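Query structure, 215 tokens:
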């Protein structure tokens, strides 16, 4: 039997898979066909994210972490495989609410389909052109409930996320569980504009919240 007590922090991570040991234990239990019981901590509240808004963190400490994030991302966009799974600190503003992650995305990043969500966001810190392409962030398994609470925040939130990269082309990020019909619309815009599809896919995977003094 596997008994999982899930709260709001990722915990220790296996450097080879960039997954938490809790997730690895869960996946192993599924492989062995064990009975699985999952218990979620009853601490989730609508204002959960407010406890972690960046009101008065030590400025020097957080600025140093943001500088490190920018340096790591600058390396990541050049040679992503050298820093896959690296944890970085961000200050983000969520918008648009959460959405279910597409099957292709989950498969490419070895995430559990139907138990992975994403949200659109803007990176507020660190600032820089290297951060602008990051417009989505995802959460899977035991981090989902805490992540959902964060997406409700109306204010920017500090968090940690892991850089992930795959060589596979991922064309869809938003799962569509119900079919729909649509009509082709005429194309407008600059007739000389051309879209260059990306090679592979880069995502941010939510890992944990910074340690702050809560009120």
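Result returned for the query:
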């Amino acid at each position: 039997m596997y008994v999982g007590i899930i709260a709001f922090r990722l915990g220790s991570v296996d450097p080879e898979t960039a997954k938490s040991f809790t997730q690895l234990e869960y996946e192993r239990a599924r492989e062995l066909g064990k009975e699985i019981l999952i218990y979620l901590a009853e601490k989730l509240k609508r204002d959960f994210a407010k406890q972690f808004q960046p009101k008065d963190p030590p400025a020097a400490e957080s600025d140093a972490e943001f500088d490190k994030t920018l340096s790591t991302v600058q390396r990541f966009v050049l040679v992503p495989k050298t820093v896959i799974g690296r944890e970085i600190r961000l200050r983000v503003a969520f918008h648009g609410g959460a959405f279910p992650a597409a099957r292709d995305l989950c498969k490419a990043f070895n995430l559990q389909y139907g138990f992975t969500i994403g949200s659109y966001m803007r990176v507020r810190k660190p600032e820089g052109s290297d951060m602008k392409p990051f417009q989505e962030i995802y959460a899977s398994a035991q981090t989902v409930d805490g992540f959902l609470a964060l997406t409700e925040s109306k204010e920017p939130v500090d968090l940690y996320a892991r850089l992930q990269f795959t060589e596979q082309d991922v064309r869809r990020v938003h799962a569509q569980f119900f079919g729909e019909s649509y009509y082709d619309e005429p194309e407008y815009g600059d007739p000389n504009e051309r879209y260059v599809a990306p090679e592979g896919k880069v995502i941010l995977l939510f890992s944990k919240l910074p340690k702050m003094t809560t009120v």
